[in-house]
């Protein structure tokens, strides 16, 4: 029979849960940093484990496999990206180029951790299989990204920056498709493609096609 009172047992369970959650976060921090620097394939699971003071089997207590760890890193990365985008101005901005400038700034953020670009492309391939956990993660992420980008474009239309007949949904999907396609080309070029400049060039051309005549010259400021 357990001689400890219920409150003590509950405290023990809660404490153990908090410790486990903290260690899981520490593992994700290490994996994100290591994958970001060297790429997923070049970092063995044992290296991630050693970085947080665990054996490989100890790490597998928190994540069943390296692929599960990869998915968790990707999920966290997507949430951080969404938070970053959410912190950028939408309405009440006086800059007609804000949405296009944000596209370039977002790419610059990605380029700071090139290994995570490889990670994104890697999981994208797996997400095409509807039976994988990555499928639902990416499906939700893409819908959210399209909706939020479309809303930013809609705000710009309402403020008179973009032409009133702008197909905001179609443009949002195009923006995301170009961004993801260029990330794939960056991986295939072994990082030789200047990803930020490629997005800047695309954003400038898109802005010129969408800005109203009174703001058309603003595209040159990008």
How does the helix and strand content classify structurally?
mainly alpha
CATH level 3 topology of the largest domain = Tetracycline Repressor, domain 2
Instruction: Calculate the mean pLDDT score and round it.
Output: 87
Uncertain runs are: none
What is the percent of helical residues? over 70%
What is the level-2 CATH architecture name of the largest domain?
Answer: Orthogonal Bundle
Residue share in β-strands: under 5%
Order of helices and strands: HHHHHHHHH
Please provide a written account of the structure.
With 222 residues, the protein is mainly alpha-helical. It has two domains: 1-63, Arc Repressor Mutant, subunit A (Orthogonal Bundle), CATH 1.10.10; 66-221, Tetracycline Repressor, domain 2, CATH 1.10.357. The chain is 71% helix and 0% strand. The mean pLDDT is 87.
What is the topology?
Layout: H1 6-38, H2 45-51, H3 56-60, H4 66-86, H5 98-111, H6 114-127, H7 133-158, H8 168-188, H9 195-210
């Amino acid at each position: 029979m357990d001689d400890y009172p219920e409150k003590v047992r509950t405290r023990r369970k809660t404490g153990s849960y908090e410790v486990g959650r903290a260690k899981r976060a520490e593992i994700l921090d290490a994996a994100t940093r290591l994958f970001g620097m060297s790429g997923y394939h070049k970092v063995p699971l044992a290296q991630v484990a050693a970085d947080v003071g665990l054996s490989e089997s100890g790490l597998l207590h928190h994540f069943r496999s390296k692929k599960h760890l990869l998915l968790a890193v990707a999920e966290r990365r997507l949430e951080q990206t969404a938070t970053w985008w959410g912190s950028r101005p939408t309405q009440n901005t006086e800059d007609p180029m804000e949405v296009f400038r944000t596209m370039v700034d977002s790419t610059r953020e990605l380029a700071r951790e090139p290994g995570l670009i490889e990670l994104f492309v890697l999981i994208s391939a797996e997400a095409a299989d509807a039976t994988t956990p990555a499928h639902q993660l990416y499906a939700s992420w893409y819908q959210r990204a399209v909706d939020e980008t479309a809303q930013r474009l809609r705000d710009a239309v309402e403020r008179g920056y973009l032409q009133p007949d702008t197909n905001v949904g179609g443009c949002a999907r195009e923006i995301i498709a170009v961004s993801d396609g260029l990330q794939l080309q960056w991986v295939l070029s072994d990082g030789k493609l200047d990803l930020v400049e490629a997005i800047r060039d695309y954003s400038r051309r898109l802005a010129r096609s969408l800005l109203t005549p009174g703001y058309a010259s603003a595209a040159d400021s990008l």
